[in-house]
Structure formats: C-alpha cells, structure tokens
C-alpha cells in the first residue's frame, strides 16, 4: 500500500488520517503538540465551531457524520439583539429545517484522532515538529521535541535519523499544519509560488456565559448576534448548556474602550446590555485581565500542490477570517475533494495532486473573499432594510425556482456547489435582479407619463 505523511493532527490533518486509514494506506501523522486527549487544557482558537454541509459531507465519507452531529447543538436562525437589550429580530438561515451545528473543537479533533487510530496502519507522532520539506529529496524534515522518537518503527520510511532532525519519506505528503505552516514556509522560494497574507484590523476575545440552573441562559438553537457597526458580538451554544461568546472589534477599539476594567464594563453594558447581565462583571474583568485580543489572518496561495506528491490543505492553504464559518468546513471539503480526485485518477498520486490543485485554488480564493465580505454583513448589513428586502426576495425566488435560485448564504452553507460556481451564480442573480428593477422602473415611469399625458389638459400641456 502507498504511504502518506501528514503534517499536523489538527482538524484537517486528523480527518485526512481517517480518509487514508479507510483506504488502507500507511499513514503517519506528525503533530507539534502533545496528544490533546491527554491534556487538561488545550490552548488555541475558538472553543466551538459551526459545522455545515461541506464539513458534514466529509465526515459522512468517513462514517463520523451522525456521531458528531448528535454531539452538537443545531442552530436554525440568527437572532439579532438590538441595543435596548430587550428586542430582537429573527432571520432564519434557510428553508425550514435547514441548520448549522455548533460543535466543540476539541471534542471533534479527539474523536477523529481516535477514529483514525483504530486502523493498525495509522500512527500519530505527537511532540514531533515539522521543520520543513526537503524538496530535492521529497522528504519531510521532522524534529522530535521529546526523546526518544518512535518514527523508524512504523509506517513511512525514515531515510535518516539523528537526535536533531528526522527525514521522512512518503509517497504522498499532506501539509495540514495550519495558518503558519512550516511546510508552506519552506516552499516560499519556489519560483511562481504566489502567496499573500492579510491581517484584518479586527481581533477577537472569547468569553463564556454559564448555564443557569442547568439550563441555557438564552435560547440555544439560534446564532446570537449583536451587530454594532464596526464591532460585533456573537454567541453559540455548547452541549453543556454554556455559550461561547466572542467579541470582534478593531484593535484600536480594544485599546480605546476595553483596556481598563471600568472601560470594558461600561462598553459591554452600553452596547450589549442583555449579554452583559449574563456574562457578569467578574467574568468580563477576569477575561480581559487574562487574555489579549487575538489577531485574524487571511492567507491565499497558489498552487496548492508541488513535486507531484505534496499538497497543502486546510488553513495551510487558505486560512480565512471566521465570518462565514467556513474555515474548517472548507478544510474538511479539501479532504473529501482530494479523496474523490484520487479515485477519479485511479490512485495515480502525481496526476491527482496536480488535478486537485487546479480544481481547488480558485474555490479557496473565492471563499476567502466571501468570508471577508460576510463580516460587513454580520457587523452592519443585517440591520439594513435593503439587506432584509434582498433576503425576502431571494426566499421568494427560491420558492418559485428551488433549483436555480438559491440564496448566496444557502449555496455556501447548505450545498456542495463549488465556491467558485457559487459566486458565478450570485452574479447571474444580481444581473437578473438589476434587469427586473430597471424594467420595473421603466414601466412605472411610462405609467406615470401615460397618466399625465391622458390628463394633459389638467397639467396644462
Ligand atoms: C475565532 C475563530 C472562529 C472560527 N469559527 C469557525 C467556524 O465556526 N466554522 C468553521 O468552519 N471554521 C471556523 N474557524 C476556522 C477553523 O478554526 C480553521 O479553519 C481550522 O481550525 C483549520 O484546521 P487546520 O487543521 O487546517 O488547522 P489547525 O486547526 O490550525 O491545525 C493545525 C495543526 O497543526 C499543528 N502544527 C502547526 N505547526 C506544526 C508543525 N510545524 N509541525 C507539526 N504540527 C504542527 C498544530 O498544533 C495543529 O494541531 C474559526 C477560526 C477562528 C479563529
């Protein structure tokens, strides 16, 4: 059987391990951190994540969909909280029943590692840091951070080993080592490798709302949103009846209004009065004393494949801002698309690797841009009448033409239509809408003109 070496046992690396375990390949995964299943606290990004159709389809392919979805909290609509802290507006995500699922990141990661490890051909090497890729020899350069390393005893062949660095060969190398990928970094000098990285002006801080007498403090099956122009607050329910609450704001706003205890409390009280009451003064103060706002980065690169045997996937290929809830979903879909591409190419690694990159780069760039755009929607547009009107129009058109007129959010979230096609379809919808509006205005104008003409004596001409 062929061998695959995977850099990173995060969400995308662990899911890839499940895919290749299922195919019966020899799988070795090199992860910088300790085994998270043995850790008390896992440092890292968002506590919970919104899982949607693309992610579900990938989990389905490895037999984990039902189990994971049942461990989550379904969310059917956005609940927009007004500034008075008492009134709300509800915006369903799609058709009745369509929903996303709030999932615990750590639990999801642990379940996938355990699932992959059930196969005797899969081995995880924790506390093994991938340093680079030696692209002349097509090897992954790994350093063990806890001695001794167990690498040579299993799976991919270790071409050489000393205490400092281990060179690992494999038929296929998958770089799933996240936004700051060491593999991608070592490819930067390759001619015609395009790369761009943008930090947005916003950062985020995560807080928690505790269960209230073992009950959810808010309605649980909705995505709570407090859009306030250039900053916004969101809350997603967890299975343990808590909510993970995230504030997104420009770093300058954090500095200006949230850098002293007094300031941060009055900022929350003024802008999110209902959330403020449930978060509590003590928790807000403690959190802001303990953590700094975290940055958000958007990364694009092209190609996603190299030397006929290496592929960048997940955040290593396309880290995106979290406002469409698609980073993980897109990364999971990467695993599924690559698996499908391998099958289409009769497991010919070289041609599958090339075909995958050709297919996926455009899609990844599109969802990166859409994620950036969706922030405008979350922080501001959801409150505008033009946005609400467009949403109503899209819903009506979708009822009349269920297959050909699917709203943008639904195409991204509830289908597997390639992201690049999603944007083409949206452009076509915009064109039709603008033709309809122009025609309606022309008809109205002619109507008014005819009315005035038939009453010209009254108007004096
Ligand atoms: C605030 C926030 C909220 C989000 N919400 C959502 C959401 O609701 N829905 C959604 O779909 N996405 C969401 N995302 C995006 C999602 O978190 C990422 O897209 C996803 O984690 C990417 O998975 P990954 O496996 O590619 O990278 P990571 O999860 O970053 O995993 C990379 C792994 O590689 C390991 N690693 C790193 N460097 C090395 C190395 N040199 N050697 C070995 N191992 C290494 C790391 O330890 C880690 O385990 C959110 C992101 C943020 C910041």
Automatic annotation (TrEMBL):
PANTHER family: KYNURENINE 3-MONOOXYGENASE
Upper taxonomic lineage: Eukaryota, Metazoa, Ecdysozoa, Nematoda, Chromadorea
Superkingdom of origin organism: Eukaryota
Assigned keywords, A-Z: FAD, Flavoprotein, Membrane, Mitochondrion, Monooxygenase, NADP, Oxidoreductase, Pyridine nucleotide biosynthesis, Transmembrane, Transmembrane helix
Entry keyword annotation includes Oxidoreductase: yes
EC number assigned by the record: 1.14.13.9
Pathway noted in the entry: Cofactor biosynthesis; NAD(+) biosynthesis; quinolinate from L-kynurenine: step 1/3
One of the GO biological process terms: L-tryptophan catabolic process
Cofactor(s) essential for the protein: FAD
EC class of the enzyme, as a word: oxidoreductase
Protein name per Swiss-Prot or TrEMBL: Kynurenine 3-monooxygenase
Compartments, as annotated in UniProt: Mitochondrion; Membrane
Function: Catalyzes the hydroxylation of L-kynurenine (L-Kyn) to form 3-hydroxy-L-kynurenine (L-3OHKyn). Required for synthesis of quinolinic acid.
GO molecular function annotation: FAD binding; kynurenine 3-monooxygenase activity
């Amino acid at each position: 059987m062929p061998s695959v070496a995977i850099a990173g046992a995060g969400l995308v690396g662990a899911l890839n391990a499940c895919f290749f375990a299922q195919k019966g390949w020899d799988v070795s995964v090199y992860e910088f951190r300790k085994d998270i299943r043995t850790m008390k606290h896992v440092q890292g990004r968002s506590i919970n994540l919104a899982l949607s159709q693309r992610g579900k389809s990938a989990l389905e392919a490895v037999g984990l969909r039902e189990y994971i979805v049942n461990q989550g909290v379904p969310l059917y609509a956005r609940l927009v909280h007004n500034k008075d802290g008492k009134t709300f507006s509800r915006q369903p995500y799609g058709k009745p029943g369509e929903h996303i699922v709030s999932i615990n990141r750590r639990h999801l990661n642990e379940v996938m590692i355990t699932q992959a490890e059930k196969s005797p051909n899969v081995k995880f090497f924790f506390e093994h840091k991938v340093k680079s890729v030696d692209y002349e020899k097509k090897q992954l350069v790994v350093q063990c951070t806890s001695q001794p390393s167990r690498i040579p005893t299993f799976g991919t062949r270790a071409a050489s080993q000393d205490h400092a660095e281990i060179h690992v060969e494999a038929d296929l190398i998958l770089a799933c080592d996240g936004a700051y990928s060491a593999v991608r970094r070592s490819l930067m000098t390759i001619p015609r490798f395009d790369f761009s990285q943008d930090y947005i002006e916003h950062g985020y801080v995560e807080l928690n709302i505790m269960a209230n007498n073992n009950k959810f403090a808010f309605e649980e099956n909705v995505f709570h949103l407090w859009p306030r122009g250039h900053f916004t607050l969101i809350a997603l329910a967890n299975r343990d009846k808590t909510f993970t609450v995230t504030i997104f704001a420009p770093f300058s706003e954090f500095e200006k209004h949230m850098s002293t205890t007094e300031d941060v409390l009055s900022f929350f009280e003024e802008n999110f009065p209902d959330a403020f009451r449930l978060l509590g003064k003590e928790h807000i103060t403690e959190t802001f004393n303990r953590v700094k706002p975290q940055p958000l980065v958007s990364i694009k690169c092209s190609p996603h494949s190299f030397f006929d045997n290496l592929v960048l996937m997940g955040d290593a290929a396309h880290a995106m801002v979290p406002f469409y809830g698609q980073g993980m979903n897109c990364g999971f879909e990467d695993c599924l698309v690559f698996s499908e591409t391998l099958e289409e190419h009769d497991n010919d690694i070289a041609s599958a690797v090339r075909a995958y990159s050709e297919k996926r780069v455009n899609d990844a760039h599109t969802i990166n841009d859409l994620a950036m755009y969706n922030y405008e929607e979350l922080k501001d547009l959801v409150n505008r009448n033009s946005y609400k009107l467009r949403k109503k129009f899209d819903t009506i058109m979708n009822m009349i033409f269920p297959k050909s007129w699917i709203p943008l959010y639904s195409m991204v979230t509830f289908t597997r239509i390639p992201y690049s096609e999603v944007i083409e379809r949206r452009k076509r919808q915009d064109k039709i809408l603008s033709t309809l509006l122009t025609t309606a205005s022309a008809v109205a104008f002619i109507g008014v003109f005819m009315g005035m003409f038939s009453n010209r004596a009254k108007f004096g001409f």
